[in-house]
Amino acid sequence: MAWRCRFLTARRSQRGHVIAENAPDTLVDFHTGPVAAAFDEAFKELGAEKIDEVGVPFDPTIHEAAMTDFDADAEPDHVIKVFQYGVKVGDRLIRPATVVVSM
């Protein structure tokens, strides 16, 4: 009977895990959404611009390539993923965006 108890416990845990797989995005948005919105508002007030676009040609003056990857849907030398957004104020680059570049 001990195996049955462990089986039922594992099954309940698995069921909760499947439900929780969809929940992290919702939980993160719920808890960090107001903070992220405040940062975005502060960026706008300071005249800062986020560099986080996907699908644009790789520009070494504003992007830092962390790695390259093959993507059949993307053109070569285009940004396919942003690991960390960059920040630019006017013409001055504060932090380059760390990106993945298509081959």
What's the total helix number? 1
At the first level of CATH, the class of the largest domain is Mainly Beta
Query: Count of DSSP E strands?
Result: 6
Any idea what the shape is? flat
Query: What is the C-alpha radius of gyration, as a whole number of Å?
Result: 21 Å
Please tell me the CATH architecture of the largest domain by its name: Roll
Give the integer mean of the pLDDT values: 82
Strands side by side in the biggest sheet: 1-4-5
What report would you give on this structure?
- A hairpin with a 2-residue loop joins strand 4 and strand 5 (92-95).
- The model has no long low-confidence stretch (mean pLDDT 82).
- The protein has 2 domains: 1-46; 48-103, Nucleotide Exchange Factor Grpe, Chain A, domain 2.
- 44% of the residues lie in helices and 30% in strands.
- The termini are far apart.
- The strands form 2 sheets. The chain has a 3-stranded antiparallel β-sheet with strand order 1-4-5. A 3-stranded mixed β-sheet has the order 2-6-3, with no helix packed on it.
- It is α+β, with helices and mostly antiparallel strands.
- It has one helix at 2-46, and strands at residues 48-51, 63-69, 79-84, 86-89, 92-95, 97-102.
In a few lines, what is going on in this structure?
With 103 residues, the protein is an alpha+beta fold.
What's the helix and strand layout?
Layout: H1 2-46, E1 48-51, E2 63-69, E3 79-84, E4 86-89, E5 92-95, E6 97-102
